C-alpha cells in the first residue's frame, strides 16, 4: 500500500515538474492525430464521389450557359430619380420577354440590359393582374430565347435553378429543390387571384422577380415571383410554366387574358361551420363578398352562401374555383349549386348565372 501511494505521489510530482505546457501538448497532439485521421477519411471519400460531384457541377454550368444569355435585367425610371429593377426572360428571338407585372407597373419608361452589355428600350405588350405576369418587347437582333419546360412533370425534391439580377447583380444563378407544388394564393403570401405556385428553397431576393426558374434540362419551369419576407429566407414562389406560357400566349395575341367573371370573393369555409352543418367532406367554398350589380348578385347569390358545385364540378378550393370560373365562356349560363344557412337550417338550391367578363380582361393602359 505504501509502495502504491509513493508511486502516485511520484507521478504527481513529475507532472508538477514538467508543468501544464507538456500536458497541453500531449492533449493537442492526440486531438490533432484524430483530426488528421478524419481529414484523410474525408479526402478518400470525396475522391470516390468526385465523378458524381463533377457531374453535378457540370450540370450547373450547362444550365447557366443554356439559359443565361436569355435572362435580362429590367430597369424602370421612377419619380424623383429613383429606379426600380427586376428580371425577365427572352422567350422568343423576335424580342418578346416574360416578367412580372409588379416589375413593370408604374414605369415611366423601360430599358432592358442584355448579357452582352447592350441596353435597349422596351415597350409593354400587355399584362395580366390575375397572375402578376407581363410581356414586354425589345427590337434587337441576335437574341437567344429560352425554351419552355413542363412544370407539371416536376416532383418534390427535383433540382431547380433561378437566374436573375438580385439587388442589381446581373446574371446571378442559384439552385435548390422543389419544396412544394400547387401552393394557393389564398394564403396572402403571394399575388394573383387565379394562381397557384411552385415553392422552392432556391435563393431568390429582390431583383430576381420576373426571372426564370429552370429545370435540369435548362428549360423554363417557372417565373420567379415572390419570397416570404423582405429577403431570402429559404421560401420562394414561382408561377408554374404551364400557367405562365398560357398567359404569355394570350397576352401576346390580345394584350390581355380574357376570363369569365362571377363577382364574388371566395374564401375557405370555416372549420366551425363545416363541423356544425356536417360539411366535413371537403366540398364547399364560402362567398365572403358579392360585388354590387355583378353576375352573382343579379342571380341572387348572397354573402355567406356556400358554393358546392360549378357547372356540376365540385368546388373544394377558392383558387381552383376562381380558375374554373375564369375558364368559363363569357356570356354562357353556368349552373351553381349553393348551400344557404337559414334560421331554420341549411337549404340547398341550384342557381343559374350568366357569366360576365372579368374587369381584369382589358388591354393594358399605362398607369
UniProtKB/TrEMBL annotation:
Alphabetized PROSITE patterns for the sequence: PDZ (PS50106)
GO BP, one annotated term: proteolysis
Record-linked Gene3D superfamilies: 2.30.42.10, Trypsin-like serine proteases
Protein keywords: Hydrolase, Protease
Record InterPro entries: PDZ (IPR001478), PDZ_sf (IPR036034), Peptidase_S1_PA (IPR009003), Peptidase_S1_PA_chymotrypsin (IPR043504), Peptidase_S1C (IPR001940)
Aminoacyl-tRNA synthetase in keyword set: no
Enzyme Commission code(s) on record: 3.4.21.107
Family: Belongs to the peptidase S1C family.
UniProt cross-references to PANTHER family, sorted A to Z: SERINE PROTEASE FAMILY S1C HTRA-RELATED, SERINE PROTEASE HTRA2, MITOCHONDRIAL
Protein name (record): Putative periplasmic serine endoprotease DegP-like
Organism of provenance: Pirellulimonas nuda
Lineage: Bacteria, Pseudomonadati, Planctomycetota, Planctomycetia, Pirellulales
